[in-house]
Amino acid sequence: MLVLRADLVDEIVAHARRDHPDEACGVVAGPEGSDRPERFVPMLNAARSPTFYEFDSGDLLRLYRDMDSRDEVPVVIYHSHTATAAYPSRTDISYASEPEAHYVLVSTRDDAEANHTGHDLHSYRIVDGVVTEEEIQVVESYMFAHTGSDDVPDHA
């Protein structure tokens, strides 16, 4: 399950709508080992295409260096589909190289059907070419969300 703050959902959807009709892409970084997406990092789609996204290699290198310096990892890798459902394409599956990441897709097509997030937004794990959809729990804060024992207050 992906636990995602509502403000991050809003940021991802706003970026997708802003870049439409081209696909939008980006990362939500979080502390290493936490599986907690915290820092929204919109990226430029170097392909500038309505059917494909590609991170600029220089931007991606800078992002990974920045995440390394902050002890962060890419918890969420997101992009939009402009004419199809929010499901990974064959190309998306072949390019998925972060087995620990949640791959979030949002559809900006006109007839996109909203789910419990209020958008056609879905999360997947993609490992060795196998796509597994996972539930998204949208929360206002991670303080009491089910993100791990580190977030549970101690009661001594």
What is the topological layout?
Blueprint lengths: L1 E4 H14 L5 E7 L7 E5 L13 H13 L2 E10 L8 H6 L6 E6 L13 E7 L2 E5 L1 E4 L17
Parallel strand pairs: 1-8, 4-5
Antiparallel strand pairs: 2-3, 2-4, 5-6, 6-7
Strand content: 25-35%
Distance between the termini: 29 Å
In oligomeric terms, what are we looking at? Answer: single chain
Q: What is the number of helices?
A: 3
* Major β-sheet strand ordering: 3-2-4-5-6-7
**Fraction of residues in helix:** 10-25%
- How can the largest sheet be summarized? 6 strands, mixed
Note down, in words, how this protein is organized:
The protein contains three helices and eight strands. The longest helix is centred in the N-terminal third of the chain and has 14 residues, at 6-19. Residues 147-156 have low confidence and may be disordered. Strand 2 (25-31) and strand 3 form a beta hairpin. By secondary structure, it is an alpha/beta fold. Helices cover 21% and strands 31% of the residues. The strands form two sheets. A six-stranded mixed beta sheet has the order 3-2-4-5-6-7. Strands 1-8 form a two-stranded parallel sheet.
In short:
With 156 residues, this protein is an alpha/beta fold. It contains 3 helices and 8 strands; from the N terminus they run E-H-E-E-H-E-H-E-E-E-E.
Give a quick set of tags describing it.
alpha/beta; globular; 6-stranded mixed beta sheet; 156 residues; two-stranded parallel sheet; 8 strands; 21% helix
